[in-house]
Amino acid sequence: MLRNFLIRLSTSDSMRRFATDFGPVRRVVRRFIAGETIDDAVAAVKELNARGIKTLMNEVGESVTTQAGATQAAKAFHTLLQRIDDEGLDSHVTLKPSHVGMTFGRDFFYENVVDIVRAAQTYGNTLEIDIEASPDVQDTIDVYHRLLDTFGGGVRLAIQTYLHRTYADVQRITERGGSVRLVKGAYNESPDIAYQSKKEIDQATIQLMETILDALAEQSEITLILGSHDPKMIEWLIRETEARGIGKDRFEIQMLMGVRRDEQQRLAALGYQVRVYVPYGDAWYPYFMRRMAEYPANILLIGRAMLGK
Ligand SMILES: Cc1cc2nc3c(=O)[nH]c(=O)nc-3n(C[C@H](O)[C@H](O)[C@H](O)COP(=O)(O)OP(=O)(O)OC[C@H]3O[C@@H](n4cnc5c(N)ncnc54)[C@H](O)[C@@H]3O)c2cc1C
């Protein structure tokens, strides 16, 4: 219930203004968001890279309401790719479809994203695409298949394991040589289309990891990417890859900046590929609220900041 309430607050303007202006909240925000500028993000990435952790940079933004705004957002991703190259960072780039034009239809989104993929290829980098709430899922997957037609598996797509449809989506994408980032899913979805209990979502996540692990033997170009902080899911993946003799270079564990930082470091020190999602930019509010909703214990961090601890 608290999760649903916090997800609803992530679209509230008055809460956004409160969070932006209230010092203790802003201090907690800095744990999860690198800062408002690209320089802040570069500094955070350098620090992570120095500790053997790869990254995934995202200029936060979503539901952009004008075509000009979406085009401008797309340009910012070109700037980001160039900056990653200039600084020699070990970082992919990821974007949200509704940030770069999905609101105006999948063709408009495709045109914006295809240019970013070309730029990523020029720099020898990889673009990842986040997945948003269910009304955009089909269009995002369709665009991803168009990108696979042109670029093969050099682009990655996030896929939500809580959706009933996902097993079929993952099979089709994997058969075509695409790599997906399996995430449980961060939005409120109805029981008609999505599993609701943690038990069901965990089972679906394991089943999907199994499907991709089966495919790894035949498809040398795909990577299994687990985007999760859940110790059960991570332990399962490590155990299963060891049992199957699958090398650490064939899978990646992704986590969000500020979440389970010790575990990120521990896994990286053991030689696992760990990639941390580093968000930055001034439109941080909905992203931050979804992080609170996922793990309401994080609200205690705000309480502690208010008490000056
Ligand atoms: C790299 C990455 C990219 C993502 N991209 C997307 C996307 O494109 N679309 C989308 O819908 N969702 C995305 N998500 C969010 C995802 O869908 C989940 O909402 C989120 O990861 C929480 O699920 P979980 O698997 O981490 O574990 P949960 O099942 O939520 O939690 C299991 C356990 O993990 C630990 N844990 C989880 N979260 C926290 C936390 N915040 N702080 C401390 N411990 C925690 C706790 O021990 C908890 O009991 C992404 C997540 C990651 C890591």
Question: Care to describe what's here?
Answer:
This protein is of the alpha/beta class and 309 residues long. It has one domain: TIM Barrel (Alpha-Beta Barrel), CATH 3.20.20.220. Helices cover 53% and strands 14% of the residues. It contains 13 helices and eight strands. An eight-stranded parallel beta barrel has the order 1-2-3-4-5-6-7-8, surrounded by eight helices. Helix 9 runs parallel beside helix 10. It binds flavin-adenine dinucleotide.
Short structural summary:
By secondary structure, the chain is an alpha/beta fold.
Q: Keyphrases for this structure?
A:
eight-stranded parallel beta barrel, binds flavin-adenine dinucleotide, 309 residues, alpha/beta, single chain, TIM Barrel, globular
Topology:
Layout: H1 2-9, H2 13-21, H3 23-32, H4 38-50, E1 54-59, H5 67-87, E2 91-95, H6 106-122, E3 127-129, H7 137-151, E4 155-160, H8 166-175, E5 179-183, H9 198-216, E6 224-227, H10 231-244, E7 251-256, H11 261-269, E8 274-280, H12 285-294, H13 299-306
Parallel strand pairs: 1-2, 1-8, 2-3, 3-4, 4-5, 5-6, 6-7, 7-8
Helix pairs in contact: 1-12, 3-13, 5-6, 6-7, 8-9, 9-10
Bound molecules: flavin-adenine dinucleotide.
Flavin-adenine dinucleotide (FAD) binds at residues 130-131, 158, 160, 183-187, 198, 227-231, 254-256, 259-260, 277, 291, 294-295, 298.
